[in-house]
Amino acid sequence: MPQDDSDWFGPESATFGDRVAGARAAAAMTQAQLARRLGVKKTTLSAWEQDMSEPRANKLSMMAGLLNVSIMWLLTGEGDGMTGPVDDAQINPDFTGILSELREIRADMRANTERTARLEKKLRLLLQQEALQQEVL
Question: Are residues 40 and 59 in contact, defined by beta-carbon separation less than 8 angstroms?
Answer without folding.
Answer: yes
